Amino acid sequence: MTDRARLFPLGDRIRLDHLARDPYPHYRLLQQREPVSWVGETQQWFVTRRADVLEVLYDAETYTVASPQSLLSDTLGEMMLSLDGAEHRRQRAPFAEAYQPRRLRRLHSDGIRDLVGRLIASFAARGEGELMSEFCDPLAIISVTGVLGLPLSDLDQILVWYDDIAAALANFKRDETVRARGQAAVRAFGAEIHAHLQRLAIEPDESALCAIAQHPQHPLEEEAIVANTILTIFGGRETTAAMLGNTIWAFLQHPEPLVELRADGSLLPNALEESLRWEAPVQTATRHVTQPTTLQGVALERGEVLQCILAAANRDSVHFPAAERFDIHRANAADHLSFAIGPHYCLGAPLARLEGQLGLSALLEALPNLRLREDAEAATLAHPYGHEFRGPRALHCCWDPAD
Ligand code: HEM
C-alpha cells in the first residue's frame, strides 16, 4: 500500500465502474472525510466540496486546462479548452458574442421550435419510442450545427467525422491508427469549414460562424476558427442530449412535479436548472497544477491532475439543503456548477437552456401520459449512467397517442 493510499483510504477504494452506476454515496463520504482525496485508480486528486471546486475553477494560474498529454489538443490543435490566459480570452471572445442568450433567442428560437415540432411529429402518433435516439440526440446535434450555420445536407458526413474524432479523444491507449484517423477527420472537416467560410465571405448570413469569422474587433485566424468550431460541436452534442434525457428521466421518476409542470409551464426553467443540479450531464472538470500549492491542507505537486467533481459540488448540502431531493421549486437550483464556472464557463449554456426549454415543453404537451416502458431492461437503460458524461443509455417510453 502506498503512502497516499494509507492517507486517503476512501479515495483508494473508489472504482470507476461504481461511480458510473451511482457516484453520489461515494461523493458524500469523500465530502465529509476526504474532501481532497487521492484516487489511486485514476492517479488523480478528486475535489468534491463546492467551495473548493469554486476555488480551483476560478484560479486558472494555479490550476490550468493546458496539458502536454491532452488528447483534445493532440486531435483538434490549440483551442479554447486547451488554453488559459490572454490567448484563451482572444479565442473565446468572438465565440462568446455569437452565443449570447439574447442573440440566440432572437435568431434561433424559431428554427429550434420547428425542429422540435418535426422530431415529435415523426413519432407522436406511434404511442411509443426511444427518446434518446429519436429526440434528444437529433435535437442536440441538429441545433448545434444549425446555429453555426453548417448546411444540414452535410450532417451525415459530419457524423462520420464526429465518430472518428470521438475515438481519438478517447484514445487513452494511444493507438496510432486511431490518432491518425481522428486527425484526418479534423483535416477533412476543416476543409469543409474552409469552403463554407469562403461562401460566407461572398454571401454573409446571420449564423454564428459568420459572426465569428467576420467579427470586426476580434478577428481569428482560420486554424483557430476550425478547431474551436469542431470543439463547439463536440461540446454541444452528447452533453445536451444527456441533459434532455436526464431531465425526462427525472420528471418520470417524480410524478407530482410532473403534474405541476404540465399545469404551469412557467415552472420549467427552474425545473431544468434543478435537473442540471441533480444529475450533472458532465460530472467532472479536469485541471493541471502549475505550481506547488495546498488545497484543504493537502499538498499538491506541479503537474498533478485534479478532477473537480461538479456532480458532487451540486449535491453539497452546505449550499443545497436536502441536496439529494429533486425539488423543482428549489430557490438556488441555478447555483449548480454543471456548466462549470470561471474562464471556461460553458460557452453553449444559453443554447443548451434554449433547447431544453423549447424541447421539453413541447414534448410534455404532445405526449400525454408519458411513461417509461414497464420492463426491467427499459428501467436499467433509462437510469443515468457514466462517470464523466452521465445520461440515460436509452429512454424506451410510451404515451397515449393522439386520436
Ligand atoms: C447541458 C449541456 C452542456 C453541459 C452540461 C456542458 C458542460 C460544460 C462544462 C462543464 C464546461 C467546462 C469544462 C471545463 O471547465 O473543463 C463546458 C465548456 C464548454 N462548452 Fe459546454 N456544456 C453543455 C452544452 C454545450 C453546448 C450546447 C455547446 C455548444 C454550443 C457547448 C460548448 C462548450 C465549449 C466550446 C466549452 C469550452 C469553453 C472554454 O473553454 O472557454 N457546451 N461545457
CATH topology: Cytochrome p450
Q: Which CATH class applies here?
A: Mainly Alpha
Residue fraction in strands: 5-15%
Structural class based on helices, strands and sheet pairing: alpha+beta
- Taking all residues together, what is the mean pLDDT? 95
**First-residue to last-residue Cα separation:** 66 Å
* CATH homology-level superfamily: Cytochrome P450
Side-by-side strand order of the widest sheet:
1-2-8-5-3
What is the number of helical segments per DSSP (H or I, 4+ residues)? Answer: 19
Describe the structure.
With 403 residues, the chain is of the alpha+beta class. It has 19 helices and 10 strands. The strands form 3 sheets. The protein has a 5-stranded mixed beta sheet, sandwiched between helices. Helix 14 packs across helix 18 (349-366). The longest helix is centred in the middle third of the chain and has 27 residues, at 176-202. The protein is globular, with a radius of gyration of 21 Å. 41% of the residues are buried. Residues 65, 80-81, 92, 99, 144, 231-232, 235-236, 239-240, 243, 281-282, 285, 338-340, 344, 346-348, 351-352 line the site of protoporphyrin IX containing FE (HEM). Protoporphyrin IX containing FE (HEM) is lined by residues 65, 80-81, 92, 99, 144, 231-232, 235-236, 239-240, 243, 281-282, 285, 338-340, 344, 346-348, 351-352.
